Amino acid sequence: MKDKIFTILSKKHIVVLTMLLTPLFGFIDRNLVFFSALGVAFLILWGSNFKWSDFGFGKRITTNMTLKSFLIALFLVFIFYTIEAFLEIYFGKIDISSLDDLRGDIVNYSITLIIVWIFAAFGEEFLFRGYYMKRLAILFGNGNKAWLFSAIIVSIYFGISHSYQGLAGIIGITLWHFCVSLIFYKDKENLISAILIHGFYDTIGLTLLFFSQERLIYDWVLQLV
Predict the structure, then answer these.
(1) pLDDT tens digits along 57-115
(2) Nearest Cα to 178, choosing from 66, 76, 71?
(3) Contact, 69 vs 203, CB < 8 A?
(4) Cβ atoms within 10 Å, residue 6
(5) CA separation for the pair 119, 123 (Å, rounded)
(6) Is the full-model pTM beyond 0.85?
(7) Pair 94, 168: CB distance under 8 Å
(8) Please, is 108 exposed, middle or buried when counting C-beta atoms within 10 Å of its C-beta (0-12, 13-18, 19+)?
(9) Which helix (H) or strand (E) holds 160?
(10) pLDDT at 1 (0 to 100)
(11) Which residues pair with 190 in a beta bridge?
(12) Comparing C-alpha atoms, which of 185, 191, 192 is closest to residue 151?
């Protein structure tokens, strides 16, 4: 049974079917889109006897990798918060109202951080870059152009999955995802670095939100223009 499931789900075109069919669960609950697709990826991992390297886990975490990832995340915060400030001028305010209960609430903030590191940092990176991006690149021929095309498709797909944030949010997240995809593309066996960058980026954002300073960079940019 295990081998049969692995054989079926490992076929090249299955990644496309997964990306097309799992959004249908959104009619039931938005979170089911993510968890159903994540379930497919974990079934493949299970069927491979947990061959993590197939999903980009080819390097061990080190102190240097962690520090470098944090600095990249910090840099991306300044870059993309600036970009999003301009996006809001033309495409409307980014809606993050679903996180408003984090403001000044240390318990919710702490719980959300744990959830973010497990499901956003690890879960989304495992699914969107470790599974979707790698499998699409293989489907398209596994060359440089295939990887670039895969990065573009998955970044747009990831951005659209955040449609609840509004058009400015979709565009900003798509650009952010593409940027991190390019970093992963440079070292396809180092998904851990992408996970760390994602986790640190979200942690900084949540911390700013906790102190109600999430618009600090936005307002500074808007004052300049």
Answers:
(1) 999 999 999 999 999 999 999 999 999 989 988 999 999 999 999 999 999 999 999 99
(2) 76
(3) no
(4) 16
(5) 4
(6) yes
(7) yes
(8) middle
(9) helix 144-160
(10) 76
(11) 57
(12) 185
Comparing C-alpha atoms, which of 123, 213, 117, 157 is closest to residue 20?
157
Distance CA 150, CA 55 (A): 15
Contact status, residue 94 vs residue 165, Cβ threshold 8 Å:
yes
Task: Give the model's confidence band at 214: pLDDT under 50 very low, under 70 low, under 90 confident, else very high.
Answer: confident
Give the max Cα distance, the chain: 62
Question: Which amino acid, one-letter code, is at 38?
Answer: L
Token digits of residue 40: 């497919």
Token pair belonging to 38:
């994540």
The ranges assigned to domains in the chain are: 1-50, 54-224
Amino acid making up residue 44: I
| 3-class secondary-structure state, position 93 | coil
Residue type (1 letter), 207: T
66's tokens: 């962690």
